[in-house]
Amino acid sequence: AITCGQRCVLKGEPGHATALFAPPRPGMAFLVPGVACGGSDSVVLVLEHIGRSCGWEFTHMLSCESHPENQAWVRENFPRLPLIFPDMCQLRTGRCLNVATGLEADAPSVDIFIAGVVCKSVSSENHQMGAHGDCIAVGTGKTGPTFEGLRRFVEKVRPQMAIYENMVGLLSDPWVVGAQIVDVGEAFQSFGYNFA
Question: Is the Cα dihedral 99, 101, 104, 107 positive or negative?
Answer without folding.
Answer: negative
